[in-house]
Amino acid sequence: MKDIQNEIEDLRDKIRYHGHRYYVLDDPVISDAEYDRLFLRLSELEEKHPELATPDSPTRRIGAGPQESFLEVVHTLPMLSLENAFSDRDIRDFEARIKGLAGDDSVFDYTVEPKIDGLAVELVYEKGILSVASTRGDGFTGEDVTHNVRTIMTIPLSLTKPAGNIPVPELLEVRGEVYMEKGAFEKLNRSRVNEGLPAFANPRNAAAGSLRQLDPRVTAKRPMKMFCYGAGDVRGARFSTQQELMSLLQQLGLRVNEHFKVCGDIREAMEYCHYLEEIRSQFPYEIDGAVIKVNQVSVQARLGSKSRSPRWALAYKFRPNQETTRILRIDVQVGRTGALTPVAHLEPVEIGGVLVKRATLHNQDEIRKKDIRELDTVIVQRAGDVIPEVVKAIKEKRNGSEMIFTMPSLCPVCGTGVVKRQGEAVLRCPNPNCPAQVRGAFRHFVSKGAMDIDGLGDRIITQLIEKGLVNEVADLYSLSTEDILKLDKTGEKSAGNLINAIRKSRKTTFARFIYALGIRHVGEYIAGILADSFRDVEALEQATEEDLLKIGQIGPQIAESIVSWFSDEFNRRQVKRLTDAGVEFESTAPRQGSSVEGRVFVITGTLSSMKRSEAGDLIIKSGGRLAAQVSGSTDYLVAGESPGSKLEKARALDISILNEDEFIKLLRKERE
Ligand code: IVH
Q1: What is the CATH number of domain 84-190+197-317?
Q2: What is the CATH number of domain 2-60?
Q3: Least packed by Cβ within 10 Å: which of 182, 216, 535, 564?
Q4: Architecture of domain 600-671 in CATH?
Q5: What ligand 1 atom has the least distance to the C-alpha of 257?
Q6: Is the full-model pTM beyond 0.70?
Q7: Ligand 1 centroid vs 116 CA: distance in angstroms?
Q8: Would strands 600-604 and 636-639 be described as parallel, antiparallel, or unpaired?
Q9: CA–CA separation, 494 and 485 (whole Å)
Q10: Best CA proximity match to 435, nearest among 472, 477, 485
Q11: Which fold has domain 322-404?
């Protein structure tokens, strides 16, 4: 029996350890299958020996069946709210206020952390075991959501004993935010819509709805997470700053946000708030601001609280990235690949400092799903650099004048019947001579990453096409100065410059050339890989799907698209005409004084076009070196989405930081 008890305890320790590495640290050291085996073994043993079961066993996350209602929980210390700041001035006023109250002799610094857009929850750990979890409620009394909180894998059922002689506190009331990641939220909504259930309006509502489920089995299926950022009553632990508290929470196995930063003065705090606002769209979860706190607990105590919020903390609210406006009309744009995109023309509205007049509606399926109509009042979102989109219609504001929109069955530009490819949501104009597609192809061909022809803007392209001076991109290379002079507002000098730029563009690289062809799914990065893998255009032209699939990172969709592009007579003639016109490629041998060879790279965050391991392979292949940690000898930090603390360290050490595009360009340049 003793042996079994030992095995059970050993399994629990292992599962807790590996669960913490997986869910909290995001850094597993065993495979999922191995974890599942440990879990299964423990479940079997506990089933056979119910007398050895304990409430904090990792198998006991979903213990209870549905409840009738929620019990009330009175918070030992009230869960306060935060005062909001909307400008730098508000932040400076905050500083002036607390400096005045704290007295001239007090020395303190600040901490800044993201303000997570979820819902506040308090966890109570008694002797290290999770006993009660409650919502904030009105700040004094909340609801008992213990059963549901136990299903959240980032919340430990028992605390980890910290290293050294730090004990697990006798009592720890820890506070934080429970939230749902954006990806999980979208997935949940998709499946709800499929089941005919109403979609949640935003991740916060989804998290709140999920936490307030009477049946924990439902909550268990909703992927929620928690970040801890504060404490209520604590006995048996000491911390004199917010920074120490965060470190203690982390050591106890609780999850804290990695973008937490200590700032020496209010200026630095303010700058960090702006930085968080700038990178806000890169977070996998919603943040609606940054929280500035006085770091020193003694100063916090001296400042005290007002009735609803502490005087020592401030929420700097980001400018909203969503606004309400009205759709004036919807029209359809045809892109380079013939894709028809419905575009909403809006009553102009300022979002995050930019005047937005148009927003994409993606495709017919999206319009139908969201039931968006012309003249609807809608919520428009502008996240980072992406094209603004219509998020939803506010149906309550309808007055009957709204009109249902349906996509045309004919291309609005050339009148050809549109088609829908299997497995695609978009409608396409199948006519390769459609003026919209031709214009798009020209625009792409001359763009920076492609043939990079300076001075060939939209106005000139449109005129060249309209006047019949060019029909295909290869025609550009037969243009004369006289042709250009036929265009409106074009003088001798600019015509000469343009012809020169066109001529000069013939000397290019194989990668740019492939990219310029505008093959679907072949972006700059894939073009670079193709250029590396094929001797010349003829070789690429003759490649079969099988040949292409042998090259790492080229999947079936890309391979199919390339083969089908080259099987088109028109396209092959285009390529021939371009090479006949004198387009030639510089050698692709690695250059001297390489910016990759021998350089040390660290990769952090998620890259959108490849896995981190693939990026690592590319670096090694190009002669670079990889390191796991940022240090003084790091040359570049490649920062993907949600980059984490490495980014801050690299900034602090003044190391070159590359975003994904810059990284790809650097590798490509290396090959050119
Ligand atoms: S501290 C006494 N830190 O924002 C200080 N709150 O508007 C209490 N929140 O109710 C809160 N992220 O739900 C703090 N890093 C963070 C936060 C945070 C999100 C929420 C919390 C609070 C609300 C106040």
Answers
A1: 3.30.470.30
A2: 1.10.287.610
A3: 535
A4: 3-Layer(aba) Sandwich (3.40)
A5: 15
A6: no
A7: 8
A8: parallel
A9: 9
A10: 472
A11: OB fold (Dihydrolipoamide Acetyltransferase, E2P) (2.40.50)
